[in-house]
Each structure stands twice: as C-alpha cells, then as structure tokens.
Structures
1.
Amino acid sequence: MNMPIANADIAAVFDEIADLLDMQGANVFRIRAYRNAARTLANLERSANEMVERGEDLDALPGIGPDLASKITEIVATGTCALLKRLSRELPAGITALLKIPGLGPRRVRLLHDELGIGTLEQLRAAARDGRISGVHGFGAKMQRQILDAVQSQLQQERRVKLSAAMQLADAILAELAGMPGVKQAVAAGSLRRQRDTVGDLDLLVAVERGSPVMERFTHGNQVARVLMRGNTRASVVLRSGLQVDLRAVPAASFGAAWLYFTGSKAHNIALRKLAQSAGLKLNEYGLYRGRRRIASNTEKSVYAALGLPFITPELRENLGEIEAAQARTLPALVTLSDLRGDLHAHTRESDGRDTLEVMALAARRRGFEYLAITEHSAHLSVARGLDAERLARQIDAIDALNRRLEGITLLKGIEVDILEDGRLDLPDTVLERLDLVVGAVHDYFDLTRERQTERLLRAMDHPHFSLLAHPTGRLLDERRPYDIDLPRVLRKARERGCFVELNAQPERLDLDDLACRMTRDEGVLVAIDSDAHGIGDFDHLRFGIGQARRGWLRAADVLNTRPLAELWPLLDATMGRRSRSIRPPSAARADQTSNIR
Ligand code: DGT
Ligand code: CA
Ligand code: CA
C-alpha cells in the first residue's frame, strides 16, 4: 500500500532538519528556510502529497523554493530525505528530543554531545545524576539540577499529539483505508473523535466484508515505522512520526456497537454498561444483548435508543453528566461551526500576520462571516512588529476607508493589547477609545505568583476599555504550561465587568480548554471562539475551537460571536464604556441589509 504522507509528517522532517542544522551551527537563513517550510506545510489546507501526484507547482507555496519543492517530492516518494539521513549520521538520531528540555538550545545540546557523548534523554538523565553535566563549561550545579528534573518529568509524561496533527494523519489513513477492497466504511474513534485537545494514539475502525485484505495492507503502509501486532481483526502500528495507530475491523452488523465502544471514553463506556446491567441487558463491543439475543448493534443511535437514551454526541462522552442529561432529555444543543457569524481576533501584515487587511476581509466574507475584528499586537510585543498609538490610528483610518468600500463584511477596529506586568494596558486611552473592541493579552511574565498573575488580569479588566481576555491561561500544548491564575475569580470578574473571555482556536493553544469553557458557561460569561488568524488559511482553526467548545457544553447562545452584528454592537459598546452607539458605522448598516441576501 502506498499510504499518502500527511503534511504534518513532511513538516516533522523539515523541523528535524532545521534542528540538526542548528546544532551544527549552520547558516541562520538556511535554518529559517526549513522552519518556515515546516510551518507552511503544517498550515496548508491541501495535501502536499496530492499536489505532488498531480504535478502541481509546489514552489508557488509561500516560503517554498525549487530546492525545498524537490525535497517535498522526495519525502512524498520515500517517506524521508537524503539530507536528513546525512545529518543524522553526523549527530545521533533522536538528539532533537533534548531540545524539549527547558534551557537546552541547539548550541548547548551540541556541547553536551561533543563533550559527554550525550544523544538521548536517558543518557542526559544518567549524566545529570552522576554530576557530569555541571563540569561542562557554561553549565552549573543549579542548571544540572533543573535538567534532571525536566528530563525525569519528560520521560514519565506520556507522549500526546496535538489534535490538529493527529487529525491530518488520521484523515490521510482513513482515505486510504476507505479505498481498500471489502471496506464499507472507515472512521475515527477514540479521543480523536471526541475532539480531545491532545491524542495519545489513533483508534480507527473499518466495517469490512469477509476476506478483506485491510489488515495486511494497513501494516505495510509506507508511513509505518513498526508493526506492534497484527491479527485478523486488529492491528497496531507506530508511524514514522511516532504516533501509534490501532485499527479494528468489524462486520457491518456490529459496526455501531464497535464504534461506540472504541470511541469511549472508557468512563462513558463503563457508565453505559452499568445502565445496561440495571435494565437486565449486556453491552459490549459486539452489541447490546438481552440474554443471548442481540437487540441493537448496527448503529450507535440504535444502541443508545435501546438503552432509552437519545444519541449522545462524541464530544460529551466523558461521563461528566451527559448520561444523566440524556436520561432527563436535557442534553444541550451544542454550538456548531456554522453558528459563527464572525471572528473577533485576527492579524494582518501590519503586525505579524501574512495577509493584508483587504485579503483578510474578503476571506472572511467568503466564509460567510458578517464581521471580522482586526486585532494587531501592541508595541510592547516588538518581535511581532506591534503597533504604537500612531500606527494604530492610521490603521483605524484604513479600516474605516475599507469598510466604506466593501460590501457584505464589516471589519471591526480592535487591538490585541499587551497586559503589562502590573496590569496596565500597553496603549493610551486616547487611542483605545476610538476602537470597537479591546482584546487584552498576556505575552510575558508567565512566572508571577498566582496572586500577582490574577491581580494583573483583574486590574486589566477594570480598565474602562476592555472587551475580551485573549487566550486566558497562556498555555501552549507541548511547550508551555498555563500560567497560574485563579480562573474562577477571573471569570467572576468578567461577569461583574460585563466583558468576555476567549477560546483561542489556534491548535497549539485551545485556550480556554474544555473544562474551563464549562466553568465560564456556568458563570454566565460569554465565550468568543476566535481563530487568532495570522493568514487566511487560519480561519480553519475555528473547527478545533468549536470542538473544545462542544466538549465544554457550550450552546450557540453561550458564544459571543454567534451574535449577528446588530446584536454584537451593544455588547461591545458596553465593554468600551459607551452607552450605545448613536451613529452606526455606515458599513454596519449595509452588512445588515446584505446578510439577508446571502
Ligand atoms: P488517548 O488515546 O489516551 O487519547 O484516549 P482514548 O480515549 O482514545 O483511549 P484508548 O486509545 O486507550 O482507547 C480507545 C477507546 O477504547 C477508549 O476511549 C474506550 C475503549 N477502551 C479502551 N480500553 C477500555 C477498557 O478497558 N474498558 C472499556 N470499557 N473501554 C475501553
Ligand atoms: Ca486513542
Ligand atoms: Ca488505542
């Protein structure tokens, strides 16, 4: 089988090359070229594999020149590339794992390799335990202790993959499985289907006719690095990217029961089984039985129905009250992607985005949005070319001009203003008050005590112009833990203040997380599900935000940006200390008219 290689896997090869080049002290531009290419691929909506097969021009993609294009072609054909092989002959394979240890950059990792022959996390741990690290120039006893702690927690921690990357891999494999002889249906189960923000392994399920060669072909796929086991109805493999995939094959007659079982969660399954038992029934992955007679099995819906329940959407299957709600017929109608009427957090080239105002506006309109808030960084975030008051004033004028010209979409004037260490905002009131909304965000001083970090946020929210708290906990999946805040207190403040909190849909953020969403809903504070787009492709992130929102039991009414613009204006105005808008911007009035036509 020639399993198509996912963009995420190609990106992983480029990232590894960049890391290895970095350790060799290669030219920074060369390193950056590989990093940019990895980012382009990770954000690409289309499959690079498919583009290669169709002979399309890869070097038309941003940041991809002829050299990188030919490397992509090579990776698609062989699963790897000669440059990576050569580099990993010079440095041990897997040494890049050391870069995950805080404080260890490429130079230091190189030094540890050259001085002590360290190439793996285990060797690093051993050297730290023996006290050899502190002897290397530039490393002290304190650093050695920190490294030891970090390595130990890294080695203990199970390796989980971001949902977005897991989905790319799963989609590619499912497409391939669906085309194999005797396969009637190929679907994802497990935590991926439940939209968990990270995934431990992929669980895939196929409905097959007898004699299908699916197991044989699956285990011979060219992304497969290792086969852990292969039987007639199940197989487990490890992909090149390190992700494990479990595949089960079942006859169509028990497909629903199997899908229910392998979707989990385990806690949900156990609760369902108890429910079945109390009704004198037996539930397993083959079906729901009364005595030896199978009473439901071909669809999930039929199994739930036979248990006296309505269908429970996978995002809720965590045994966190969904079964009780199903019994009481009070399951919430969860928010969907098509409920979103706009997006309240996006960047353009003016700060660190990739597209212009107009290109962003048109892309938002194409998605059927009624409004898009432009929220550049403020000057404090100089790495992102943040705006000072003067540049922001110019952008305000540019947005007004564009709004007069464009139909069917309204750009809202916003800013992602830095919340400074002491809770002040990074721009003067005189310019903030000209905006439609102010989005506040923390980008530094992550290590403040819980008390100080919380006070910092509360103080920012007390500002007379404060609409929305962006990525409230600052977590970056596999990179940065959330900073320490008293979230219930922050949410209470948001309710009292009448401002909003964000569910940032960037796949590495997903912040607020699912449980925090639910807490926010219970507090009665509206959540804005935002793409934080840095380019037009990033609006696709919203689906991950919707996944988390659904896991957090949010209905459309709990989400700020499901409101049509006419209802949004007064809510935003209130956060800006304006009673109401005496004169609506002309573009807004127009958007109201055109929204009926669309
Ligand atoms: P993960 O992979 O850690 O992100 O989480 P899951 O939920 O995908 O867990 P996984 O891959 O271990 O198992 C997939 C599903 O199979 C799980 O959600 C429910 C079902 N399952 C696995 N083991 C058991 C078990 O011991 N009892 C029951 N009732 N179900 C199980
Ligand atoms: Ca799993
Ligand atoms: Ca599994």
2.
Amino acid sequence: MIAGSPRPNIPWEERPPACADVVWRFSRNPIIARDAIPTANSIFNSAVVPFGDGFAGVFRCDDRARRMNIHAGFSDDGMHWRINPRPIEFRCHDAEIGALAYRYDPRVCWGVLTSCNGFVYSFGAALLDLDQPWKVIYRTAPYLLSPQMLYECVGDVPNVVFPCAALTDAATGRVAIYYGAADTVTGLAFGYLQEIVAFLKENSQV
Ligand code: BMA
C-alpha cells in the first residue's frame, strides 16, 4: 500500500517499448538548464513537493562565483519551472545562524538513496523500517540509474546522478524522481513503485 494521495498530475512518461529498466529517463531531459536563471552556473540536486494544484521546489543554484545557494520555484506540471532569480532569504534572530556559508542539496527524501564509489555517483533504492528508519530492510545491489547520458557524464562534476526528491501517485504507484546530473542540470526519471519494491526484494544486499 502506498501511504499518500492520488496525484494524477505528477510529471510522467511511460517506459519506452525497447526499455526493460525498472527506472527510465524522461526523453526530454534535462528539464532544467544550467542557466535557467540569469546568474546561475548550474541548477541541480533539487527538492520538489506537491503544492496547491501544482508543485513547488527548492533548487540548488550555484552562481557564477560558484557560491552555493537555494532558490524557490513553482510549476504547474512539474516539468516547466519558474525559479525565483533571488535566493531564499533567511531571517534569523541570531545573525550567525542566518549567515550564508553553504546552502545546497535541499531534499524531501523518500526511500531513494544515493551511493558512491568515489568516482561515479549512481542511485538505487532502500526500504527502511517505518518505526526505526535506521534499520535497512532491503537495499538494491545493482543501481537503478547510473550516469550514462551525455548530460550525466559531462558537466562541472562528471559522472554524477544524484536524486533529491520524488513525487508519487498513490492511485497508480507511479513515481517521478528528480535528480541532479553532472552537478550541472536537473533531470527526471520514472518508475512504478510496485516494480521498484519487487526489484528491491529480489536484488537486495544490505
Ligand atoms: C556530494 C555532494 C553533492 C554532489 C556530489 C557529486 O558530496 O556535494 O552535492 O552532487 O558530491 O559531486
């Protein structure tokens, strides 16, 4: 059972006929270009959540002085984004807490983990105990997605796919995964939760 709401409007594209992968890429990736706001060097590793009739996100935008910061954005379809050119403003009573050092990789995380071997960032899935989430029940040994497309292999940091958020439609089990590619742009990948969990159980190495 998927604990969540039916969300028929999440971004979605069916698995291509020739593809047997559990998780597949959106054919129009990357969905967010590195310069989608004027000052950005790169926009990646970003979090997305349902918001009103559409979606809201917190985007990691590194600027052209390579300062890392986070920006709010909104979308009707989860694919086309209006990202605020100004970073999110933090108002704190304690100036030290509000001071900008690094702000990056915001995420609303649901069961999708990143793993790394030091050279290549791929991602798989893990099932965690609901009450004791530090207990890993299953973890995929094979990756679900690894850097293979040009926009994942070439960029400011080559060979990185880095998921930070997923949207789900509880009625159908469809999952849309947002991921950073090569620390430069943002992509989308899709899967069915039932298939991901079945693959997880059959290919687990904890
Ligand atoms: C990690 C984080 C991520 C980044 C990844 C690959 O340590 O810094 O933001 O995507 O490295 O460079």
3.
Amino acid sequence: MKQFTQKHLLGIKDITVDDIELIFETADGFKTVINRPIKKVPSLRDVTIANIFFENSTRTRISFELAQKRLSADTVNFAASSSSVSKGETLIDTVNNILAMKVDMVVMRHPAPGAAIFLSQHIKANIINAGDGTHEHPTQALLDAFSIREKFGNVNGKKVVIVGDILHSRVAISNIICLKKLGAEVMVCGPTTLIPKHIESLGVKVETDLMKALNWCDVANMLRIQLERQDIKYFPSLREYSMLYGLDKKRLDSLDKEIVVMHPGPINRGVEITSDVADSKHAIILDQVENGVAIRMAVMYLLASQQS
Ligand code: NCD
C-alpha cells in the first residue's frame, strides 16, 4: 500500500508526485462520500484539529471545517482578531497553549511567508499550511490540479495559463509547482509589473498578451488582484487592468476552441472575470469549491493515519 511521506503539508515543494497521486486517489473516495445522502464517515473520530486563522478567509476556512466534520474530527476554531495575539502573545506561545489542550493537528493561515514551516519546527502536531502570505497555499493547488484531472482525465500534457497578480499570489506559486510536477505545461500572463523576475526558472512560459495566452491554453486560471498585499501601484487603475487582462465573453467567444475557466475565489466580478464568464458552462469554479472539501479530507486523513 502507498504511504504518505510527510508529517506536515507545508508546501507543494516538499511533496512527491506519489504523495500527490495518493491524495487524489484518497480524495476520489471522499468525493463519493460527500455526495451520498449521509456524508459523514468516522475516520478521524478521536482526532482533534485546531483551525488557526491569522488572516481573513471564507472558503478555505469553511472548507477545512466541513472536511473535518465529514471525517468526524473534533475541532476548535481560532481567529486572531478575537484572541490574545492582540495582547502581544507570540505565535509559538499561542499555538503551544492550544496544543496543551491536546490538539493533534493544526490548520494555519498566516500573513507571514514561512509561518507554517516555522511552526512545524517548534511544535509537535501535524501542521497544514492554509496559506502563508505570498508563499504557498498547497491545498488550493491540489484542489485545482484535481479539478483539471477530473475535467480532462489527466493533468499531464495539459496547457494551463495562470493570469493576473502572479507576484503576490501563493495560489500561483503552489499551482505552478504542482502542475509542473504532474507534467502540465504552465504559462503565466499579466502585466510585467505583476510577474516576478526569474519566474522562468520554475519552468513556466511568460506572456503579457492575454489573447495569445488564451489561444495557447486548455485551462485559464484567473487570479484576483491582491490589493491587500500591494504596497505600491502596479498598474494605473482596475479599469485599465480589466480592459487588458479581464476575461469576458467576447474574448472567450473569439477563441477557436473551448477552454476551461478556473478561479480560486474570492471573485472580483468585472475585474479579472466578468459575471457572464464566471457563471458560464466554461467555468468550473464551483467544482473547485466542492473538490476542495474532498482534497482537504484526504490530506487530513493521510496525515492523521500516520500518527500511531
Ligand atoms: C486565495 C488565497 O487566500 O490565497 N483564496 C482562497 O484560498 N480561496 C486567493 C485569493 O485570496 O485571491
């Protein structure tokens, strides 16, 4: 039987292709579970998981919480704004206090890149990185690749363009690493100011013309502009950005083939993608959300299974 090689899920960088395939196979099983009338299995009974969110989140937090409930885990939720962090407590003290209450696994989102890695070096529980600043967001990349696999049967050989704010996006970085590991061809597209220097070293193509990128790809993953992480202005206005890089029906219809449209959410309708595209048959945005629960169930199940 295949074994998961990791104690934590800190980034896609650290896991092997076999790990990713094992997560996908496990998620296939859990996807059938969550589509049954009775959606719950006892797999993580007796496992206690803390969800620690130092940054805003709707989808990811609810997705993890639902995944935990479907697996019958016990959970505690912690949001930094209402906690002792605002009284000056350090990250390690906060988490160690939670662990002292006998918590087995920690799901953490934090604005600092490397926060999950740091935590894994100092505490005993399994850590899942639910997004660390502009660094990595491994479960998002896994659910995105899983959704491409579901749509096409395979990720290998598919052409995926990631459009938008690559510079500030942990989704972009984790997606690039994951898709490359699985044999996809990856392109990034956006204004030069939002494309990190030396991104080619990750084995991706760079394109600044959206129409060329769309004509090349099988899948377009449209990212949100991360205004909250932008300290300076990277483009003149959101209106100009959407004129050059927004995906609308006209652009989609002008292609001589059908492409699949993805978005990690939250969508800024009318900026990176128009409503008619977001709600069209091309978009698999809600499939991504559904698959997120199955992927997170798989990750937590695999991490918990190797504890004994
Ligand atoms: C992403 C994130 O938080 O990095 N959202 C998510 O997890 N669904 C992308 C974003 O915030 O734009």
4.
Amino acid sequence: MQISYFHTSENVPSLRPVAEGGPDAAVVIDVLRATTTIACALQSGAEAIQAFAALEALNQAADAWVPERCLRAGERGGQRVEGYDLGNSPLAVTPEVVGGKRIFMSTTNGTRSLEAVKPVPLLVTACLPNRTAVAKRLIDHGVERVWVVGSGWEGDYSLEDSLAAGAVISAAMECAVSPHVGVRCANDEALAALALWQQWRHDTETCLRAASHGQRLIGLGNHDADFACCAAVDTMTMVPTQTSPGVLQAA
Ligand code: 3SL
C-alpha cells in the first residue's frame, strides 16, 4: 500500500481514475474539529452526515429533508453559523441531540476537503480517536494507493492534521502484519507527517493547542473539552465512510 499525504484540499492533484493510477482510497482529516465531530456524531447514533462546502447547497438539501430528522451544522471562523442547530463541537453531538438524525454539515475547511475527493471509490474520515480503526479498514479493503488529505486553514498548512496523517500512516504500518501488505510513504509530505507523529505521539493535546488553529480556538473562548476529545488516541472504532456522494455513514 502506498500512502501519499496532501496537507490541504488545494494541494490535491487532479483526480485520475483508478485504472489510470488514481487513488483507490482517500482519508480526509480535520482534527480540529470536523472529522472528530463527524466520528462522534455517528458514534452517537446520527443516521448520516451530509457534507457541503457551501452553505447555500446545504440549505437546499436540508430544506428537502424530513424536518424532524434534520439538523443543520454550520461553522465559519471557528464559530457556529447563526441560526444553525449546531456548530462544530464534538461535545455537542450527544445521542439525545443527534440520534436518528441526518446532519447537514458545512465547515470552513473540512467539508471542502471531503468535496475534493468525493469521487474516490473508498472515502473515509479520520481523526486521532479512530486512527487505528481507519488504518485497519484500509488494510481490510486491500487498497493500493491511498491519498490522505488534510484540511489546513484556508489553504495553509495545519500542524494537527499532519500529526493525524502521521498517526494513520504509523497505525497502517503497525497493522500490516502480513508480508503481502507492505505500507510505504509515497511522498515527502507523508514522511514528514510520520516524523511529526513520532515527535508528538505521547503529547497530542500539547501539539493541538500549540497549532495555529488551536490558538485560534483558545482565542475564541474555553475549548478545553474539545481539545481533550480531539487529542484522544485510539478511543473509537467508528469509521465514517462515504456511502453515496457527500454522505458519510457508520458503514
Ligand atoms: O476548518 C474546519 O473545517 C473546522 O473544523 C474548523 S473549527 O474547528 O470548527 O473551528
């Protein structure tokens, strides 16, 4: 298995079909906080997360859904979009709030990354809590070319997404016990992410807080519980998986 890492959706090369050397799997990461919230929401029993880059498209789709089973989650600049049911905190998606509901979601960067790799045959989302579960899923599916895509911040590199990319790659290397499944980094960004993981693996929360988006969240108010949740490693086996374009489910 060859794993490439691209630190934002803007860095992703043009997608080619699998038969022409394109990826057969993509892993989207937005540690702070979209992909952590997505995993927590599905763990809490949400029916699905439907992701949108733009709020207009989200509103159109949500308007067409059964109102009693619909929640709108919108985040811009780290804050909840006015009038939406939810922002982007993994703490808010409790079973009482999201159970049985479809969450129509748009965030500043994370949902843009999902959009960028929507056509890839196997699309999953990763965060630190589910990184080993994601790695096992890739191995079980026998995929050969994996693109791990970070979300960054408006086109810029983010430390926390690269940390989690390294965490997933490291887990894949550890889980690939069969001699038939060799895991290797296919670009320098993947190698750098792996090195970052080696540096911070025992103190992920410090890394998240030091990162520029961590500092942004701290500037917006107390996010201690969000940091603790997003920094936890291997606490979840949920693997959010795209089941139809833009729709993630506990598959
Ligand atoms: O950038 C994003 O997509 C969000 O995850 C940012 S925030 O953590 O909700 O502020």
